[in-house]
Amino acid sequence: MEPSQLVDYLQNNIGSIKFLERYWVNLEAYIMTSKLYRHDTEKISQKYSDIVNSNTATDAEKQRAEDIIKKIQGFDWDEEIGVLRGVVKKIEIASRFQSINY
Fold first, then answer.
1. Residue 75 has what DSSP assignment?
2. Number of other CB atoms surrounding residue 47 within 10 Å
3. Is residue 101 in a domain?
4. Which residues contact 41 (CB under 8 A, 6 or more apart)?
5. Are 77 and 36 in contact (CB under 8 A)?
6. What is the C-alpha end-to-end distance of the chain, expressed in Å?
7. Structure letter (DSSP) for residue 15
8. Superkingdom of the source (predicted)?
9. Residue 32 has what pLDDT?
10. Residue 17's pLDDT is what?
């Protein structure tokens, strides 16, 4: 699964959960950079720059895109970019199990 697919899935399935709203920008920034290397972040930042400069995006969408760009630019290159590879593997493993109702 590509990071953008995961973001879309989360937005469509749990994006309206109130407690996630304050964390969504951070979560999306981490997910979108999860498979990247340092030199690839420009590609992701450009996607959000396009939203900021769009004539059709709402003010809220533009602000969210700006916040994501700032988060990505503020990442510690040695520790944060690409670290979700391990988390994605754990999610994939966990999704194979079903809860048991007693």
1. S
2. 13
3. no
4. 33, 72, 75, 81
5. no
6. 33
7. T
8. Bacteria
9. 83
10. 64
Contacts of 26 (CB under 8 A, 6+ apart): 71
Lowest mean pLDDT among 22-26, 44-48, 56-60, 74-78: 74-78
The whole domain housing 9 covers 3-94
Domain count, the chain: 1
Residue 63, C-beta contacts closer than 8 angstroms, at least 6 positions apart: none
Is residue 100 domain-resident?
no
The three-state secondary structure class of 65 is helix
Paired tokens of 4: 């953008």
Amino acid letter, 52: V
Residue 102 CB-density burial (10 A; 0-12 exposed, 13-18 middle, 19+ buried)? exposed
Residue linked to tokens 């590879």: 85
Q: Using CA atoms, how far apart are residues 76 and 73, in angstroms rounded to an integer?
A: 9
14, part of any domain: yes
